[in-house]
Amino acid sequence: MKGLRTVIVAFVLACAVVASPASAVTPSWSVLPVPAAVPPVTVSDLAARGPGEAWATGYEHAADGLRPMLYRWDGTAWSRDTTFPGAGEPGWLGKVQFVGEETWIFHNLAGAGEILRRSAEDWSAVPLPTTLWTYQDFAAVPGAAWVVGEDETGLKVLHYDGSRWTTQSTPDGVLYLMGVTARTASDVWAWADTSTGPAVLRSDGVKWRDAKVPLPPDSNVHTILVEPSGRVTIGGSQYVDGAARTYLMTWNGHAWRTTHPPLGDTYTEGMVRGPDGALWLPVRSDRAFQSKYARVDGLRTTFSYGPERANAIDVKPRALAAGGPSLLSFGTVEIYGSKPNLMSERLGG
Asked: How many other CB atoms are found less than 10 A from the CB of residue 155?
């Protein structure tokens, strides 16, 4: 009888292993090789149009100053692009956006700002009407683009309508714009530092106003994720008893909902909506040789690690992008004895 029971138990366990889909269908992160740059490097942004096209921007810290850095993913491999205007000159590349069939990238060319535009034919550049002291952020959609920063007179919001630049004003009390993003030419969002604290602004493309977002007390804003459906997610930090904790606010078209996922004091600038419908963002890893990512789906937060990297002492994913059914990551990895260089990983695909 005892022998029969042992056989039955073994049979049940075997069936459970076969039936369990966890090991068979759960995708894992894999390494995507990236041609090395001149270390140390800084990654600015990553954007994907689909599984066969993505762009990553940043800059190298060369001996004679900063040098712009642009990489392209073709669905199979990363390659460095040096065909854009000013590729060999001092400067840096910032945010990358897809505008119709074109790719637009903000370019700081030895202090002067311009927008690089890549079409099927070639690269072209749209220079800014004035040189700013700082270029804080850039956003572009079909029919419009914005560059926010500061010059000797203070805050500047530069608006491009496809043919000319104009300067837009902000509500009284706005001291500085930390970032800008747009869903359409008539639905633009920005997060600001004001005389009364942080605030979220919204524009119809012409006039900026306070969006009256009920931000948590003693908080700041890291990023605003605006989706084609109109859903908006704000990520930031709230200070409670002297310690920072991450918060997320979601606008469903009618009301704001605030949650505090267990992310510690994670900086949420790299947050994206993944192909699975959940929010994904890179987080500080507790393993020196592996990256770490958080997946936030409603009230449930889970974590996953990237591939193990031999002799790595710091792996830092900087930006994420959904490329079709997969999730791309781009950042830096520091191998013992060398300066940080580029790394990329992919979930699924």
From this structure: 17
